[in-house]
Write a sequence for this structure.
């Protein structure tokens, strides 16, 4: 079991290798992250000291309505440049000759780009709660995957986060339902009362999003609702940790499903090997069976050969 981090580890290692390289080289690397996010790291032969990082996010236009551009400007304003390729929505440019002293910290910070962009609806919901406005805030939907979305809505005393997750296979559907039900049951244990409330529903969408058009309501779709209380986001440090952890819920769910399937397959292979050993032991010994003979009455006897003391040829005696 591995611990998933909110940043892209492969992007961090790729950038750090380019930052620490003594001789700038021509680079053209494409990386893929969770939620179908694509990173393109590139330098041109004419300007090898300028490293461009282009990012493709299919849900970028949605999160822009929740303040994603202001977050990008705040976190990466010194490196933002106009997008040259329409395939990508974000482009950062780094001058390899004018990097800060903490190159590892810069690579780590840039690898958090997807997390920071996707945090915009959560930050908007927490700000609505802090404003102490009456009634529920706007429902913010982010379709971060095909046929899957995150819904965030702030209320006076809580923030509700709803995940719609799609299971492509029947086995994944069964295992996912078991795991999601465990989330609900685990919340009832006294040891983890500080965790958010969790509700799971299959097919039927929660009340907060039931009015939305186009929602799928079949056995392949499940809805998981997290209820965040002020203790989960009132403090700034706790708020950042909450955002990072709740974004990884869908990745953790499918990761555990794949681990469970791999474990069951390994156990089945082990059991098959044991069965094959039993079958092989049950097979009769062909050498022994060929040397055994029957008498007229059906009894077995095994011929034994011995050297006679007489000068006549060897005699065969059959002993019962």
């Amino acid at each position: 079991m591995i611990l998933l981090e909110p940043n892209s580890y492969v992007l961090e290692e790729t950038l750090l290798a380019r930052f620490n390289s003594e001789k700038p080289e021509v680079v053209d690397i494409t990386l893929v992250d969770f939620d179908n996010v694509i990173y393109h790291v590139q330098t041109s032969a004419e300007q090898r000291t300028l490293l461009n990082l282009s990012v493709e996010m299919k849900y970028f236009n949605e999160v822009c309505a929740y303040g994603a551009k202001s977050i990008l400007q705040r976190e990466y304003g010194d490196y933002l440049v106009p997008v040259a390729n329409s395939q990508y929505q974000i482009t950062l440019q780094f001058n390899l000759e004018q990097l800060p002293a903490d190159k590892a910290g810069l690579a780590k910070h840039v690898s958090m780009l997807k997390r920071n962009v996707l945090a915009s609806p959560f930050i908007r919901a927490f700000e609505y709660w802090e404003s102490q406005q009456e009634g529920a805030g706007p429902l913010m939907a982010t379709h971060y995957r095909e046929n899957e979305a995150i819904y965030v809505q702030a209320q006076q005393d809580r923030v509700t986060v709803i995940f719609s997750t799609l299971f492509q296979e029947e086995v994944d559907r069964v295992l996912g339902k078991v795991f999601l039900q465990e989330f609900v049951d685990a919340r009832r244990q006294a040891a983890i009362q500080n965790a958010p409330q969790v509700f799971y529903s299959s097919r039927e969408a929660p009340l907060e999003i039931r009015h939305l058009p186009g929602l799928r309501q079949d056995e392949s779709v499940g809805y998981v609702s997290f209820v965040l209380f002020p203790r989960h986001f009132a403090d700034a440090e706790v708020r950042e940790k909450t955002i990072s952890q709740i974004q990884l819920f869908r990745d953790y769910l499918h990761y555990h499903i794949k681990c469970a399937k791999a474990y069951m397959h390994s156990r089945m292979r082990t059991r098959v090997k044991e069965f094959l050993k039993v079958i092989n032991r049950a097979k009769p010994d062909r050498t022994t069976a060929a040397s055994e003979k029957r008498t007229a009455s059906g009894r077995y006897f095994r011929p034994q050969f011995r050297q006679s003391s007489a000068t006549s040829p060897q005699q065969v005696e059959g002993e019962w």
